[in-house]
Amino acid sequence: MIILALALCYIGLYLSYPLWLSVLLPGRIASPGPLSGSIPPGITVLLLSCNGAEYLKKKIDWLLRELESFPLHEFFILDDGSTDGSQAILEQYTEHPGVRLIFHDRQHGIPFSMNRGVQNASYEIIVFFDQRQEVLNGSLRRIIEPFADERVVAVSGCISHIDRDQHTSWLRTHENYLKMGESRLGSLIGVYGPFYAVRRNCYSPIPEKIILDDLWLSLKILPRGFILISPECLITDDNHTELYDLKRVKRYVEGFGQIAGDRELFRSLPPIQRTMLIWHKYFRLGIPLVLAACYFTAAILAANNMHFLLLFGVMTLLGILSVWPGGFLRRLKLINLVRINLFYAVALTGFIVGRLPGWFRVSAPVKG
After folding, report:
1. Has this prediction a pTM greater than 0.85?
2. What is the spatial distance between Cα 275 and Cα 295, in angstroms, rounded to a whole number?
3. 10, 21, 76, 300: which has the highest count of C-beta atoms within 10 A?
4. Which fold has domain 31-243?
5. Contacts by 322-331, CB closer than 8 A, 24 or more apart
6. Any idea where the domains of the chain sit in the sequence?
Protein backbone atom coordinates (compact mmCIF):
# COMPACT_ATOMS: atom_id res chain seq x y z
CA MET A 1 0.00 0.00 0.00
CA ILE A 2 2.87 2.37 0.75
CA ILE A 3 4.25 1.95 -2.78
CA LEU A 4 0.86 2.70 -4.31
CA ALA A 5 0.45 5.80 -2.13
CA LEU A 6 3.95 7.00 -3.03
CA ALA A 7 3.17 6.40 -6.72
CA LEU A 8 0.06 8.56 -6.52
CA CYS A 9 2.02 11.30 -4.74
CA TYR A 10 4.74 11.16 -7.38
CA ILE A 11 2.30 11.39 -10.29
CA GLY A 12 0.42 14.18 -8.51
CA LEU A 13 3.64 16.12 -8.03
CA TYR A 14 4.46 15.84 -11.72
CA LEU A 15 0.95 16.94 -12.72
CA SER A 16 1.25 20.00 -10.49
CA TYR A 17 3.97 21.45 -12.74
CA PRO A 18 1.51 23.57 -14.81
CA LEU A 19 0.11 25.02 -11.56
CA TRP A 20 3.61 26.06 -10.52
CA LEU A 21 4.19 27.66 -13.92
CA SER A 22 0.96 29.65 -13.92
CA VAL A 23 0.47 30.56 -10.25
CA LEU A 24 3.66 30.32 -8.22
CA LEU A 25 6.40 31.16 -10.71
CA PRO A 26 5.31 34.47 -12.35
CA GLY A 27 7.03 37.39 -10.68
CA ARG A 28 10.05 35.27 -9.74
CA ILE A 29 11.40 35.01 -13.29
CA ALA A 30 11.78 37.59 -16.07
CA SER A 31 9.20 37.21 -18.83
CA PRO A 32 8.87 38.81 -22.27
CA GLY A 33 6.65 41.85 -22.69
CA PRO A 34 5.11 43.40 -25.83
CA LEU A 35 7.30 43.09 -28.90
CA SER A 36 9.12 46.17 -30.08
CA GLY A 37 11.69 46.90 -32.75
CA SER A 38 12.01 45.61 -36.28
CA ILE A 39 12.25 42.12 -37.70
CA PRO A 40 15.78 41.16 -38.81
CA PRO A 41 15.92 41.66 -42.60
CA GLY A 42 17.76 38.50 -43.61
CA ILE A 43 17.44 34.82 -42.71
CA THR A 44 19.36 31.61 -43.35
CA VAL A 45 17.31 28.43 -43.81
CA LEU A 46 18.96 25.06 -43.21
CA LEU A 47 17.13 21.95 -44.41
CA LEU A 48 18.62 18.77 -42.92
CA SER A 49 18.28 15.83 -45.30
CA CYS A 50 18.97 12.14 -44.72
CA ASN A 51 17.13 9.29 -46.46
CA GLY A 52 13.88 11.18 -46.80
CA ALA A 53 13.41 11.02 -50.57
CA GLU A 54 9.62 10.64 -50.30
CA TYR A 55 9.31 14.00 -48.53
CA LEU A 56 12.18 15.99 -50.01
CA LYS A 57 10.85 17.63 -53.18
CA LYS A 58 7.59 18.73 -51.57
CA LYS A 59 9.46 20.29 -48.64
CA ILE A 60 11.99 22.10 -50.85
CA ASP A 61 9.31 23.56 -53.12
CA TRP A 62 7.32 24.71 -50.08
CA LEU A 63 10.38 26.41 -48.59
CA LEU A 64 11.17 28.18 -51.86
CA ARG A 65 7.63 29.61 -51.88
CA GLU A 66 7.94 30.69 -48.24
CA LEU A 67 11.27 32.43 -48.93
CA GLU A 68 9.77 34.61 -51.67
CA SER A 69 8.64 37.10 -49.01
CA PHE A 70 12.22 37.60 -47.75
CA PRO A 71 14.33 39.96 -49.90
CA LEU A 72 17.48 38.82 -48.09
CA HIS A 73 17.82 35.09 -47.57
CA GLU A 74 19.91 32.02 -48.24
CA PHE A 75 18.79 28.40 -48.40
CA PHE A 76 21.17 25.53 -47.66
CA ILE A 77 20.27 21.87 -48.03
CA LEU A 78 22.65 19.58 -46.18
CA ASP A 79 22.40 15.92 -47.17
CA ASP A 80 23.97 13.59 -44.64
CA GLY A 81 25.07 10.71 -46.85
CA SER A 82 21.64 9.59 -48.07
CA THR A 83 21.44 6.20 -49.76
CA ASP A 84 17.76 6.19 -50.82
CA GLY A 85 17.95 8.37 -53.94
CA SER A 86 17.68 11.71 -52.10
CA GLN A 87 20.84 13.00 -53.73
CA ALA A 88 19.39 12.47 -57.20
CA ILE A 89 16.39 14.60 -56.21
CA LEU A 90 18.65 17.30 -54.79
CA GLU A 91 20.74 17.42 -57.96
CA GLN A 92 17.64 18.72 -59.77
CA TYR A 93 18.19 21.97 -57.81
CA THR A 94 21.89 22.31 -58.65
CA GLU A 95 21.25 25.23 -60.99
CA HIS A 96 18.55 26.83 -58.90
CA PRO A 97 19.77 30.29 -57.86
CA GLY A 98 18.06 30.13 -54.47
CA VAL A 99 19.46 26.77 -53.34
CA ARG A 100 22.92 25.83 -52.10
CA LEU A 101 23.63 22.12 -51.76
CA ILE A 102 26.09 20.52 -49.35
CA PHE A 103 26.67 16.77 -49.62
CA HIS A 104 28.38 14.58 -47.02
CA ASP A 105 30.23 11.48 -48.16
CA ARG A 106 28.80 9.47 -45.25
CA GLN A 107 26.35 9.84 -42.40
CA HIS A 108 27.78 12.00 -39.62
CA GLY A 109 24.57 12.77 -37.73
CA ILE A 110 22.33 15.79 -37.22
CA PRO A 111 24.73 17.84 -35.03
CA PHE A 112 27.42 17.66 -37.72
CA SER A 113 25.01 18.97 -40.38
CA MET A 114 23.75 21.73 -38.09
CA ASN A 115 27.24 22.89 -37.16
CA ARG A 116 28.38 22.91 -40.77
CA GLY A 117 25.30 24.80 -41.89
CA VAL A 118 25.77 27.49 -39.25
CA GLN A 119 29.42 27.87 -40.26
CA ASN A 120 28.24 28.75 -43.77
CA ALA A 121 25.41 31.05 -42.65
CA SER A 122 25.56 34.78 -43.36
CA TYR A 123 22.45 36.17 -41.68
CA GLU A 124 21.51 36.82 -38.07
CA ILE A 125 18.52 34.45 -37.86
CA ILE A 126 18.98 30.78 -38.69
CA VAL A 127 15.95 28.54 -39.22
CA PHE A 128 16.28 24.75 -39.01
CA PHE A 129 13.95 22.35 -40.79
CA ASP A 130 13.64 18.57 -40.90
CA GLN A 131 12.42 17.00 -44.11
CA ARG A 132 9.53 14.77 -43.00
CA GLN A 133 7.02 17.11 -41.38
CA GLU A 134 4.51 19.43 -43.06
CA VAL A 135 4.41 23.05 -41.87
CA LEU A 136 1.50 25.48 -42.10
CA ASN A 137 1.75 28.07 -44.88
CA GLY A 138 3.13 31.42 -43.72
CA SER A 139 4.94 29.88 -40.74
CA LEU A 140 8.39 30.97 -41.87
CA ARG A 141 7.39 34.64 -41.65
CA ARG A 142 5.59 34.12 -38.34
CA ILE A 143 8.48 32.37 -36.64
CA ILE A 144 10.76 35.35 -37.42
CA GLU A 145 8.42 38.02 -35.99
CA PRO A 146 9.29 37.49 -32.27
CA PHE A 147 12.94 38.31 -33.05
CA ALA A 148 11.85 41.96 -33.24
CA ASP A 149 12.56 41.78 -29.50
CA GLU A 150 16.32 41.60 -29.13
CA ARG A 151 15.94 39.59 -25.93
CA VAL A 152 14.46 36.66 -27.88
CA VAL A 153 17.19 34.15 -28.75
CA ALA A 154 15.11 31.27 -30.15
CA VAL A 155 11.57 30.51 -31.33
CA SER A 156 10.05 27.07 -31.84
CA GLY A 157 7.28 25.88 -34.08
CA CYS A 158 4.55 23.78 -32.48
CA ILE A 159 3.90 20.13 -33.35
CA SER A 160 0.16 19.58 -33.75
CA HIS A 161 -1.59 17.08 -31.49
CA ILE A 162 -3.36 15.87 -34.66
CA ASP A 163 -1.16 13.82 -36.98
CA ARG A 164 -1.34 13.21 -40.73
CA ASP A 165 -3.82 10.38 -40.19
CA GLN A 166 -6.11 12.72 -38.19
CA HIS A 167 -5.42 10.87 -34.94
CA THR A 168 -5.11 12.95 -31.79
CA SER A 169 -2.45 12.42 -29.13
CA TRP A 170 -3.04 12.99 -25.40
CA LEU A 171 0.71 13.13 -24.80
CA ARG A 172 1.24 15.77 -27.49
CA THR A 173 -1.68 17.84 -26.17
CA HIS A 174 -0.19 17.71 -22.67
CA GLU A 175 3.32 18.54 -23.91
CA ASN A 176 2.08 21.54 -25.89
CA TYR A 177 0.19 22.77 -22.82
CA LEU A 178 3.39 22.64 -20.76
CA LYS A 179 5.41 24.35 -23.47
CA MET A 180 2.89 27.17 -23.77
CA GLY A 181 3.18 27.78 -20.03
CA GLU A 182 6.98 27.87 -20.24
CA SER A 183 6.85 30.14 -23.29
CA ARG A 184 4.78 32.73 -21.44
CA LEU A 185 7.76 33.00 -19.08
CA GLY A 186 10.25 33.11 -21.96
CA SER A 187 11.81 29.85 -20.72
CA LEU A 188 10.78 27.13 -23.15
CA ILE A 189 12.52 23.92 -22.05
CA GLY A 190 13.35 22.45 -25.43
CA VAL A 191 12.36 23.62 -28.90
CA TYR A 192 10.66 21.25 -31.34
CA GLY A 193 13.46 19.97 -33.59
CA PRO A 194 11.56 19.79 -36.90
CA PHE A 195 11.18 23.59 -37.13
CA TYR A 196 12.78 26.32 -35.03
CA ALA A 197 14.88 29.48 -35.34
CA VAL A 198 17.85 30.80 -33.35
CA ARG A 199 20.06 33.88 -33.35
CA ARG A 200 23.37 33.04 -34.93
CA ASN A 201 25.41 34.78 -32.24
CA CYS A 202 23.74 32.59 -29.58
CA TYR A 203 24.34 29.28 -31.34
CA SER A 204 26.77 26.90 -29.66
CA PRO A 205 28.35 24.09 -31.72
CA ILE A 206 26.65 20.83 -30.76
CA PRO A 207 28.84 17.85 -29.81
CA GLU A 208 28.47 15.29 -32.60
CA LYS A 209 27.40 12.43 -30.30
CA ILE A 210 24.53 14.36 -28.74
CA ILE A 211 21.20 12.62 -29.47
CA LEU A 212 18.68 15.25 -28.32
CA ASP A 213 20.31 18.11 -30.20
CA ASP A 214 17.23 20.36 -30.00
CA LEU A 215 17.00 20.07 -26.20
CA TRP A 216 20.76 20.41 -25.72
CA LEU A 217 20.93 23.58 -27.82
CA SER A 218 17.89 25.07 -26.09
CA LEU A 219 19.45 24.58 -22.66
CA LYS A 220 22.77 25.92 -23.86
CA ILE A 221 21.33 29.24 -25.05
CA LEU A 222 18.49 29.62 -22.51
CA PRO A 223 20.60 31.67 -20.03
CA ARG A 224 21.21 34.25 -22.79
CA GLY A 225 17.61 35.31 -23.40
CA PHE A 226 14.01 34.29 -24.04
CA ILE A 227 12.99 31.11 -25.86
CA LEU A 228 9.37 31.09 -27.08
CA ILE A 229 6.99 28.78 -28.89
CA SER A 230 4.77 30.05 -31.70
CA PRO A 231 1.51 28.04 -31.78
CA GLU A 232 0.64 29.59 -35.15
CA CYS A 233 3.70 27.88 -36.70
CA LEU A 234 2.00 24.50 -36.79
CA ILE A 235 3.90 21.31 -37.66
CA THR A 236 2.08 18.15 -38.75
CA ASP A 237 3.96 14.88 -38.34
CA ASP A 238 3.39 11.24 -39.17
CA ASN A 239 1.13 8.99 -37.11
CA HIS A 240 2.08 9.47 -33.45
CA THR A 241 1.61 5.81 -32.58
CA GLU A 242 3.99 4.69 -35.34
CA LEU A 243 6.71 7.15 -34.34
CA TYR A 244 7.03 5.86 -30.77
CA ASP A 245 8.56 2.42 -31.16
CA LEU A 246 10.95 0.82 -28.66
CA LYS A 247 14.04 1.74 -30.68
CA ARG A 248 13.12 5.43 -30.72
CA VAL A 249 12.25 5.40 -27.02
CA LYS A 250 15.64 3.85 -26.19
CA ARG A 251 17.33 6.68 -28.07
CA TYR A 252 15.32 9.27 -26.16
CA VAL A 253 16.32 7.70 -22.85
CA GLU A 254 19.96 7.60 -23.92
CA GLY A 255 19.70 11.25 -24.96
CA PHE A 256 18.26 12.30 -21.62
CA GLY A 257 21.07 10.38 -19.95
CA GLN A 258 23.65 12.33 -21.97
CA ILE A 259 22.17 15.66 -20.93
CA ALA A 260 21.86 14.62 -17.28
CA GLY A 261 25.54 13.71 -17.35
CA ASP A 262 26.58 17.11 -18.75
CA ARG A 263 27.35 18.86 -15.47
CA GLU A 264 28.56 22.03 -17.16
CA LEU A 265 25.25 22.34 -18.99
CA PHE A 266 23.28 21.90 -15.77
CA ARG A 267 25.43 24.39 -13.88
CA SER A 268 24.98 27.02 -16.59
CA LEU A 269 21.20 27.12 -16.05
CA PRO A 270 19.74 29.52 -13.46
CA PRO A 271 18.23 27.61 -10.50
CA ILE A 272 14.59 28.17 -11.55
CA GLN A 273 15.19 26.99 -15.11
CA ARG A 274 17.14 24.00 -13.78
CA THR A 275 14.10 23.14 -11.69
CA MET A 276 11.88 23.49 -14.77
CA LEU A 277 14.08 21.07 -16.71
CA ILE A 278 14.05 18.44 -13.97
CA TRP A 279 10.32 18.82 -13.26
CA HIS A 280 9.23 18.87 -16.91
CA LYS A 281 11.54 16.28 -18.44
CA TYR A 282 13.01 14.01 -15.78
CA PHE A 283 10.05 13.68 -13.41
CA ARG A 284 8.05 12.47 -16.40
CA LEU A 285 10.65 9.77 -17.09
CA GLY A 286 10.03 8.39 -13.61
CA ILE A 287 6.32 7.75 -14.19
CA PRO A 288 6.78 4.50 -16.20
CA LEU A 289 9.05 3.14 -13.46
CA VAL A 290 6.52 4.14 -10.80
CA LEU A 291 3.77 2.35 -12.75
CA ALA A 292 6.00 -0.71 -13.10
CA ALA A 293 6.55 -0.70 -9.33
CA CYS A 294 2.77 -0.56 -8.84
CA TYR A 295 2.36 -3.52 -11.20
CA PHE A 296 4.81 -5.74 -9.36
CA THR A 297 3.38 -4.65 -6.00
CA ALA A 298 -0.10 -5.63 -7.18
CA ALA A 299 1.30 -8.99 -8.34
CA ILE A 300 2.74 -9.69 -4.88
CA LEU A 301 -0.38 -8.63 -3.01
CA ALA A 302 -2.77 -10.35 -5.43
CA ALA A 303 -2.33 -13.70 -3.66
CA ASN A 304 -4.20 -12.49 -0.58
CA ASN A 305 -6.35 -9.62 -1.82
CA MET A 306 -9.06 -9.74 -4.46
CA HIS A 307 -8.78 -6.00 -5.20
CA PHE A 308 -5.10 -6.28 -6.01
CA LEU A 309 -5.77 -9.40 -8.06
CA LEU A 310 -8.23 -7.39 -10.14
CA LEU A 311 -5.76 -4.51 -10.49
CA PHE A 312 -2.99 -6.92 -11.52
CA GLY A 313 -5.29 -8.56 -14.07
CA VAL A 314 -6.38 -5.25 -15.61
CA MET A 315 -2.80 -3.96 -15.85
CA THR A 316 -1.65 -7.25 -17.40
CA LEU A 317 -4.44 -7.18 -19.97
CA LEU A 318 -3.69 -3.57 -20.92
CA GLY A 319 -0.01 -4.41 -21.28
CA ILE A 320 -0.73 -7.35 -23.59
CA LEU A 321 -3.18 -5.35 -25.71
CA SER A 322 -0.70 -2.46 -26.03
CA VAL A 323 1.86 -4.66 -27.82
CA TRP A 324 -0.62 -6.91 -29.60
CA PRO A 325 -0.10 -6.76 -33.39
CA GLY A 326 -3.09 -5.29 -35.13
CA GLY A 327 -4.42 -2.06 -36.50
CA PHE A 328 -7.58 -1.22 -34.57
CA LEU A 329 -6.00 -1.45 -31.10
CA ARG A 330 -3.44 1.20 -32.05
CA ARG A 331 -6.30 3.67 -32.49
CA LEU A 332 -7.30 3.46 -28.83
CA LYS A 333 -5.71 6.33 -26.91
CA LEU A 334 -5.54 4.44 -23.60
CA ILE A 335 -3.84 1.48 -25.27
CA ASN A 336 -1.28 3.78 -26.89
CA LEU A 337 -0.62 5.50 -23.58
CA VAL A 338 0.02 2.13 -21.93
CA ARG A 339 2.24 1.06 -24.83
CA ILE A 340 4.45 4.16 -24.63
CA ASN A 341 4.80 3.85 -20.85
CA LEU A 342 5.68 0.17 -21.24
CA PHE A 343 8.38 1.04 -23.78
CA TYR A 344 9.81 3.70 -21.48
CA ALA A 345 9.81 1.31 -18.51
CA VAL A 346 11.77 -1.26 -20.56
CA ALA A 347 14.18 1.35 -21.94
CA LEU A 348 14.79 2.99 -18.56
CA THR A 349 15.34 -0.35 -16.85
CA GLY A 350 17.87 -1.31 -19.50
CA PHE A 351 19.58 2.07 -19.22
CA ILE A 352 19.87 1.82 -15.41
CA VAL A 353 20.99 -1.82 -15.37
CA GLY A 354 23.58 -1.11 -18.04
CA ARG A 355 25.16 1.60 -15.90
CA LEU A 356 25.01 -0.04 -12.50
CA PRO A 357 28.55 -1.51 -12.72
CA GLY A 358 29.97 1.96 -13.43
CA TRP A 359 27.99 3.61 -10.62
CA PHE A 360 29.15 1.08 -8.02
CA ARG A 361 32.71 0.69 -9.30
CA VAL A 362 35.27 1.72 -6.68
CA SER A 363 38.50 3.16 -8.00
CA ALA A 364 41.62 1.31 -6.94
CA PRO A 365 43.72 3.21 -4.40
CA VAL A 366 46.66 5.08 -5.84
CA LYS A 367 49.98 3.66 -4.68
CA GLY A 368 52.73 6.01 -3.79
Report:
1. yes
2. 29
3. 21
4. Spore Coat Polysaccharide Biosynthesis Protein SpsA; Chain A (3.90.550)
5. 330/241, 331/167, 331/241
6. 1-26+244-355, 31-243
